[in-house]
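**Fold in tokens:**
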Amino acid sequence: LPYFVGTTEDVPSKNMYNVVGGSYLSSSYTDSDSTRNRIVRLTRNSAAASGSVKFKVTFTDTLELSSKVFVSFKILSSVNKTFNYSFGYTDDSSHDAEGTITAGTNESYSLVEVQIDTAIRNTKSFSIDLSSLSSGEYIEISDFNIITLASISTFKEASKAVFGTITGIVDPIFGTLKGY
């Protein structure tokens, strides 16, 4: 996803990273490095925050009630910290999912599964609350993706593979299969 400086926090666009409370953060965007793509770095400045400080991406597609959404990304921080995340209405009036993400000095992969429980009346956003960052601390988020389970399950020309040893399968011709 591209990142545009000066974006408006409640304008939906799944094609851009968004910074809420941008005056409390310095931001930079890099297309890629040797192992990551679409890298945004948010560094807390010395100003005391009087409002929200968040990383936010809005999902503009219609999300049906009871559908599942997967949010995946790589995360890295200058210090070991736990951040709150939420997925719900863009105006934060209701959330389908809330939780915590731990980031450290070694990059880690995060996967958040969301069950859509709120009505389809608004666009939905994924946010990470960055208010716990202290002056000079930063967070990097890369390879950010939001996808519905329905999109994953309808891949055309997809193949299915099973890894590991399979036991207990009974075939009418070959009998019980072991060690396949």
About this structure: The radius of gyration is 20 Å.
